[in-house]
Amino acid sequence: MQRGGLGTRSLNARLQVALNGKAEPKITRFGWTFSPGDKVIQNVNDYGKEVFNGDIGFIEEISVEEGWVVVRFDGRLVSYEVGELDELSLAYVITIHRSQGSEYPAVVIPVAMQHYMLLRRNLLYTGVTRGRSLVVVIGEVKALGMAVHSQRVVGRVTNLVGRLQ
What we know:
With 165 residues, the protein is of the alpha+beta class. It has helices at 8-20, 96-99, 121-128, 141-149, 160-164, and strands spanning 27-29, 32-34, 39-42, 56-63, 68-73, 76-81, 88-90, 104-111, 131-139.
């Protein structure tokens, strides 16, 4: 989840302070504070910049005076004007949904009753299978039990059958 004390927004803010809190300069836009060295994720496809939803990079440089930020994505530098920073968010923590299709050296999955609506076996499985070397599941035993024993699958509302016909 994104909201709450164990949501991605809160955990990103805490980890940013712990891992990169002294970095300067800082620039705040669209509810996020960015600093050089921060891990960020692209939120939308930007064909002009050739960066796409889910791409993860690191902030290389910020000019508060001139109003730009430079992010390194896989060795390639991409510039953003201050008004474009809504395309980025911190990526110290991402949701399981955002992690689908990727692997990471280490994964930490908080499991708590506040995530009641998302305590499903398929989501837990997806999160656990993202880790290459280390997976840590931390949280409430009751919540983990609910996730493991949940067999409800939320149906997707699509018009795929109609389109195929």
